[in-house]
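pasting for the record
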Amino acid sequence: MISSLLFGNTRGLAFYDFPYELNFILSLAGIFYIIALYKFIKQYGVKPLWVKVSLYIVLVAPLALLVLMNPTIGQVEKTVTGPHGDNTLGMSFALIPIYFLIIKLLSQNEFKARWNILWITPLFFYIISVLYRSFIGELTYNQEWFFQYLTLLYVPLLYRWYKDAKIEKFAKLALLISIASFLFVDIEGNILFIPEIRWLFHRNDLIVAHAHLAMGISVFFMVISMFVSHIKELQTLRFYSFYLFGLIGIFTVLSLSGFVQAGVLNASIHNFWIARTIFGIFAFLSVLAFVNMKFKLTNLQKYNLFGFLNDGLGGVFLILLASFIYPSLNFSFEGKYEYIVFAFVSMTGLIHFLALKYKEYESILTKLTVFIRVFISSLFFSLYTAGTLEIVALFISAFDISMVVFYLLYFYKKEQLCKN
């Protein structure tokens, strides 16, 4: 999906804008969840309601995905013309059973969901909207308005569930951040549906900011809440500070950019995008919470770390920014074979990372990178001398053969001496 979006293989949708065929891969992935859940359910003599709910969700989800994403009868295809209240209702409802299951899983007391009418009502009307759109026709704006505002029923529902559950400190904090973000997005989405501003902001940076908050904070911390009690690095303020500062900063500057695009503010959108990149770096720095700086690397580990940073991260960096960097350096860029090269480079970096992570396979994985570099170096040198590729090919060849020579001089000889 990332590759399809990156290379422009899209359908022009407002969201989920990738080829429909990829949804079959997502549906097949659901089979693994069905198998795992079935094995888990077998442990119960009498199946609780929450177990039955989770089973039904997993069974229905793959088929529902294919129907809703279908170009002919699906709902997502219709969002090309604008936001739809019933689509928002359905997407919001998708998170409600997940919240229920997570709260049930984390609760240290006997959790019993109350106020169930607040999720049953939106579900009932969403099913009606799907059937109506699929077999009768389009909804009127007033009908969509009604479906949109049914999402507000989730606000008191999640509050009630959160207050009723007794959850461990850090898990409860992560869940609170997730729910608070979800409710904010829910309310903001209803405000954006007001007729006077609905089309003013549709599909501009304010909507992108809205999605960042929904996925980057609400869904992300929903997942975090399940594992925070078992991962000590998540039980520090350093992680939350960096990540939330970055994501909230992204949300703020993109929202302001949306107001500029809508003609409400007069400012430079370019500056807001620069700020968005800076805040993105802060969000990325949250991974430092998982890094233990008190380590000592062997020379071979340093070699693999350098290979990972250069090839692994460098390859991803080029995939994202080569279309800008190459012309800036007066290199030609076709945007075709180059991406294949960058992907191959990234995989070499991944092998270096595996060699760094798994000590028992360090030697064989490092040798594998050497064989790959010999092959790549000779190939690019031949293409350069044949005039097929430009000077960049010579740089790649020189770098790879340098890594090979360095390994042979400083590591391979020592390994042989140790064996002898």
